[in-house]
């Protein structure tokens, strides 16, 4: 039995009062208001409230297996996530989803996995697996699968594609929500998309877009991750639409997770003058109600999930309780690492060490010649005096589609090369699943002055994506990843050649290492990329989205350049 006292924050009644909370047998046994003179009575901190929930996240993007993600998230008061496992599903199929569920069950935390709706994300790239409507329906029938994950194939919804509509119908028949993904879809198309049964969207980048979807009854998730940052644009909507809003990170790298999570967004919202209970509805309450989650909301009889914070402005987390267990205290996890062999099993179950990590990687080392870009083989366009350039935008997943004259990509002996002066660099995608030609194009705003960076985290099919100044550096970075069967790599060809690799052996997406060690390693390779000249806030996260074909306007997949507006290869 655990007794805690403090100022209880009742989100339902929108009241704060001194109380004693008793946790026992995994439940909230009692909540007793305290009056002056009672033991534990205080009108000061700590404050007791339900735990925070990340309403849409891909655990894989943290580079951590679920159990390690939980260790880091709980120190910030996060007790649950609404997790879309489509990254590992695109690589390994159903066995990948099974891995996430199995590993997540080793710790006291609510991962709330969904059934991936778009594996592969499009037919215009090479993925490692495919999940048919039949397989998706089988997944949805499982109790631990809470919803149908984001329906990225919005053209399929608008055109009533049979396979797409079958997946949506399966979720609706089972009474499970369908998550959306509809960047830039407005007006009648937005209404049609929502009327198909899709209940949420986390892709809004402007208040106008969000309001357009809110009026049709859609729930809007305010996203603030390591690359896509929409909080400032959307947070004011919490003032008038708090019942229809949630908070999420979508994709969050380990260095960012180390610093904070949903707690940071709550603090930023309060600093903007947004009413406390509006903020807490989005952070704690709405995800549980919308997705019918099992986590508790600090009511008698609920699962024993709650947090204690120092104040209701900064939300510094003092203690986190999940399923009646103290899982984090004063910035330190109480869950043992599943990577290190513990003297006793970690909270929630036995240690889970993967002797042979799940993966799907079949790429042979490349040569420098593989990355050459011959001018005379530039597609089938009649006008070879111009080339497409992807314009990366810091803090956004959307890219711009530029067209540059060939003279800006340094034509040299019939080959097109990076132009450092104009910050137009070569970008390549290498198929990780089998032998294939290298896809090549150009990208702006990465800012590298020398060297190259590469990643096998390349949404959503997770082939190898690289950006670099010269073919030799690009080749080295790609081969570092191939040698490890996945990872992040950085190559500096300066006076002393420097190479750095962060291995990701689980699906080429996640490390088996301790989460805090991964955060440290990621910080080092991120710093190295910035030393090469990148001004991007998160160069590797931005790089990972340059192959995400379902986000407009121009991306590069392993089969070539893709126009996200026309939904076609160009």
DSSP strand tally: 26
Q: What overall form do the CA principal axes indicate?
A: globular
What's the overall average pLDDT, rounded?
92
Helix fraction by DSSP (H/I, runs of at least 4)? 25-40%
Largest sheet: 8 strands, mixed
Beta-strand portion reads 15-25%
CATH architecture field of the largest domain: Alpha-Beta Barrel
Overall structural domain count: 2
Structural class designation: alpha+beta
The fourth-level CATH homologous superfamily of the largest domain is Metal-dependent hydrolases
**Strand adjacency order, main sheet:** 3-2-1-4-12-13-14-15
Radius of gyration: 24 Å
Summed up, the helix count is: 16
Unreliable residue runs: 340-355
CATH class of the largest domain: Alpha Beta
Q: Span between N and C termini?
A: 63 Å
- Here the CATH topology of the largest domain equals TIM Barrel
Describe this structure in words.
- The structure is a single chain.
- The chain has 570 residues and is an alpha+beta fold.
- The protein folds into two domains: 48-333, TIM Barrel (Alpha-Beta Barrel), CATH 3.20.20; 368-377 and 385-569, no CATH class.
- The chain contains 16 helices and 26 strands.
- It has an eight-stranded mixed β-sheet with strand order 3-2-1-4-12-13-14-15, with no helix packed on it. Strands 17-16-19-18-21-20-22-23 form an eight-stranded mixed β-sheet, with helices on both faces.
- Strand 12 and strand 13 form a beta hairpin.
- The radius of gyration is 24 Å and the shape is globular.
- The termini are far apart.
């Amino acid at each position: 039995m655990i007794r805690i006292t403090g100022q209880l924050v009742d989100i339902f009644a929108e009241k704060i009062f001194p109380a004693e909370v008793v946790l026992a047998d995994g439940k909230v046994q009692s909540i007793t208001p305290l009056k002056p003179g009672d033991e534990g009575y205080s009108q000061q901190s700590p404050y007791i409230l339900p735990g925070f929930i990340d309403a849409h996240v891909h655990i894989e993007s943290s580079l951590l297996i679920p159990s390690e993600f939980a260790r880091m998230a709980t120190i910030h008061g996060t007790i649950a996530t609404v997790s879309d496992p489509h990254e590992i599903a695109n690589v390994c199929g159903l066995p990948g989803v099974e891995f996430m569920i199995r590993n997540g069950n080793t710790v006291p935390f609510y991962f709330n996995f969904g059934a991936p709706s778009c594996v592969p994300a499009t037919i215009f790239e090479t993925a490692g697996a495919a999940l048919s409507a039949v397989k998706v329906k089988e997944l949805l029938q499982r109790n631990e699968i809470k919803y149908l994950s984001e329906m990225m194939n919005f053209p399929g919804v608008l055109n009533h594609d049979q396979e797409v509509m079958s997946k949506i119908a399966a979720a609706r028949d089972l009474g499970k929500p369908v998550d959306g993904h509809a960047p830039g879809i407005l007006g009648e198309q937005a209404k049609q998309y929502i009327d198909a049964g899709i209940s949420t969207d986390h892709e809004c980048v402007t208040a106008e877009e969000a309001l357009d979807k809110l009026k049709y009854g859609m729930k809007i998730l305010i996203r603030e991750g390591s690359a896509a940052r929409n909080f400032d644009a959307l947070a004011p909507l919490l003032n008038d639409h708090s019942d229809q809003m949630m908070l999420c990170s979508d994709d969050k790298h380990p260095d960012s997770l180390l610093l904070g999570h949903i707690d940071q967004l709550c603090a930023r919202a309060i600093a903007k003058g947004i009413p406390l209970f509006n903020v807490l509805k989005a952070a704690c309450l709405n995800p549980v109600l919308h997705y019918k989650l099992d986590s508790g909301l600090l009511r008698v009889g609920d699962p024993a999930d709650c947090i204690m914070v120092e104040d209701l402005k900064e939300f510094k987390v003092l203690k986190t309780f999940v399923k009646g267990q103290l899982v984090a205290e004063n910035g330190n996890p109480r869950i043992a690492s599943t990577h290190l062999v513990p003297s006793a099993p970690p909270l929630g179950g036995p240690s889970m060490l993967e002797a042979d990590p799940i993966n799907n990687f079949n790429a042979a080392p490349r040569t420098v010649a593989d990355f050459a870009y011959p001018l005379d083989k530039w597609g089938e366009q009649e006008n070879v005096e111009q080339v497409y350039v992807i314009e990366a935008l810091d803090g956004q997943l959307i890219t711009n589609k530029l067209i540059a004259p060939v003279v800006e990509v340094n034509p040299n002996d019939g080959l097109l090369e990076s132009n450092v002066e104009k910050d137009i660099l070569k970008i390549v995608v290498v198929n990780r699943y089998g032998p294939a030609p290298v896809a090549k194009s150009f990208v702006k705003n990465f800012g590298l002055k020398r060297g190259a960076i590469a990643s096998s985290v390349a949404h959503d099919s997770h082939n190898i994506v690289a950006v670099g100044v010269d073919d030799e550096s690009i080749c080295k970075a790609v081969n570092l990843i191939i040698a490890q069967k996945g990872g992040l790599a950085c190559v500096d060809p300066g006076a002393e050649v420097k190479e750095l690799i962060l291995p990701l052996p689980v699906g080429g997406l996640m490390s088996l290492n301790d989460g805090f060690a991964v955060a440290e390693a990621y910080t080092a390779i991120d710093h190295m990329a910035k030393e090469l000249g990148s001004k991007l806030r998160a160069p590797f996260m931005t790089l990972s989205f340059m192959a995400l074909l379902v986000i407009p306007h121009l991306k590069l997949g392993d089969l070539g350049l893709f126009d996200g507006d026309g939904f076609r290869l160009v």
